[in-house]
Design a protein that fits this description.
single chain; alpha/beta; Rossmann fold; 8-stranded mixed beta sheet; 4-stranded antiparallel beta sheet; about 25% strand
Length: about 325
């Protein structure tokens, strides 16, 4: 069963330099209990896509399309109705807990506040739930840690506290934005293990530039570039049979593949290239790639593997 479906989503916002097309005609479906990895370079629109789903963008942002959650288009419901969904049904684990956590409130207070708001528990019950959640994400001495401020916790503990906050109201769908960013390898491995355990009965969209982490956690991977999806398939297929030249380059940039960088820079989201948006960086580009914008189409022989590339048509 599809829990959340994104249909032709366009998220644009105005700047002094022009209209930024951060998300441009993206369509995705996420099944019940499925984990989808949304990967790509910094600035490709991944976080904006996640923020669009949970409706945490500025009111001046122009959002078009549909986001269907359990049969309802959440772009059409009121902000009051959305507040009831946010946290209780759909939660977001924000990236960079150092700046996302309030520095002047105790960690336990911040989790308890979310519990009180969405579950209506009293002060003592909300605090007890906060301590319970800190223990659930394997923070040692949870009672003591709940009384501490964010700066008193290590980076790994702050990330665990963010996960605890996201899970506190038992949502069915989690958006995890760069949950391992800035962590050392040992702590990253611990967070990956924690995500596997805590997300087992939930659906998740993991936003990350770390293909290795996505490969360990996610069932499917969507590769994003310049505001659109270039490739979408099961995780195993993405690693074993990447079809888009950008995906191939992204995988080859992994340490295990020799750290070969993709040449060039990501294009502007204000004025993206004509034709295929990756063609200025693609060694295989042909004239049609420069002229015509390719559609995301299933590859021959694999109806579950979508690719936006003229060379794979």
């Amino acid at each position: 069963m599809t829990l959340l479906r994104i249909c032709d989503l366009r998220t644009h916002f105005s700047t002094e330099d022009g209209l930024v097309k951060a998300v441009d005609s993206v369509s995705l479906g996420i099944a019940d209990r499925e984990k989808l990895g949304l990967i790509g370079e910094t600035g490709c629109g991944k976080t904006v896509l996640g923020m669009s789903v949970i409706r945490l963008l500025q009111p001046t942002t122009k959002i078009e399309g549909k986001i269907i959650y359990k049969g309802r288009d959440i772009l059409q419901i009121s902000e009051r109705e959305m507040q009831k969904l946010r946290g209780r049904e759909i939660a977001m684990i924000l990236q960079n807990p150092t700046t996302s956590l309030n520095p002047v409130l105790k960690v336990g207070e911040q989790i308890a506040e979310a519990v009180h708001l969405h579950q209506g528990l009293g002060k003592k019950e909300s605090w007890a739930k906060a301590v319970e959640m800190l223990g659930a994400v394997k923070i040692p001495d949870a009672i003591q840690r709940a009384e501490q401020y964010p700066h008193e916790l290590s980076g790994g503990m702050r990330e665990r506290a963010m996960i605890a906050m996201g899970l506190a109201c038992d949502p069915a769908f989690i958006i995890a934005d760069e949950p391992t960013k800035g962590l050392d390898q040992k702590t990253k491995a611990q967070i990956v293990t924690l995500l596997k355990e805590t997300m087992e009965d939930r659906s998740m969209m993991m936003i990350t530039h770390d293909l290795g982490v996505a490969g360990e956690v996610c069932d499917r991977i969507a590769v994003m570039y310049a505001g659109e999806i270039l490739e979408l398939s099961k995780t195993k297929d993405i690693f074993e049979n990447p079809m888009h030249p950008y995906t191939q380059g992204f995988i080859n940039s992994l340490p295990s593949r020799g750290l070969k960088p993709i040449p060039g820079m990501s294009p502007s989201l204000i004025d993206p290239p004509s034709g295929c948006r990756f063609h200025p960086r693609c060694s295989l580009a042909k004239d049609v790639c420069r002229r015509m914008h390719p559609e995301l189409a299933t590859s021959h022989g694999n109806g579950d593997h979508g690719v936006r590339c003229h060379l794979c048509a």
